[in-house]
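Researcher: For the record, we're logging two predictions in this thread. I'll number them. Prediction 1 follows.
Model: Prediction 1, sequence and structure:
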Amino acid sequence: MKKTVKLSLALVAAAALVGCATKPAQTTTNTATTTAPATTSSVTTTALTPAQILQQTLASLPNKVYFGFDQYNLTSDAISVLQQNAAVLLKNPQVSIMLAGNADPRGSEEYNFHLGMKRAKAVYDYFLQQGIPASQMCMVSYGELKPAAQPSDFGGNWQKAYALDRRTEINYNQTCQGAGANQ
């Protein structure tokens, strides 16, 4: 038994010494100096114009706010989206927006048209309060005419589809034309 313990201790000590061994540092002497030939790159970078930067900024913004059933009051989520958009609009007064109100298909076509306009107006009024001039915005209602989704998109779950229909879209660099539009 004593021989086994001594042998085990000897093996552990040997392993520790081998594991801790360091390699001697290698030294190299460079007697010749070489110079690499200059190379030219064929990659060309193009800086974005201010207009392109603005377009990328607008494209990256969330542009929809959602409403509850038969509602047109702004939720905290909607206000968060609108704050982001207002900050960009205030810095870029040349950018026009069309606010498009929408509704789900429950209710009459006339009722949904008016509800869509109330939703667009809620967003319009918020932007006015933030200092965006009325001349920069217009409103239109599509009522139930432009659904965002179909119940079949959600395995027949009409509640999910209709929730996406209850919205106002912020459409940049567009103007309102035709019936149902308010400038």
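Researcher: Logged. Prediction 2.
Model: Prediction 2, sequence and structure:
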Amino acid sequence: MKNNKSTLSFESAIKELDEIVQTINGNSVTLDQMVELFERGIFLNNHCKNILDTAKGKIYELVKDDDSFSLDELK
């Protein structure tokens, strides 16, 4: 499991989150493993949210002066 946010792509993080959910739902992990997986899931969730927030900000900056786009849809 990687902890380096700078090298972890959005797609890789989403894939790993999906794998964590499948593992936890499989009921074949100990409580300690489940807590560790949950912690990693929180890390990945926050990482994805940061990537999406950055993308949203970039899109907002690109379209803020263009009347053909509605910024209300980005909020």
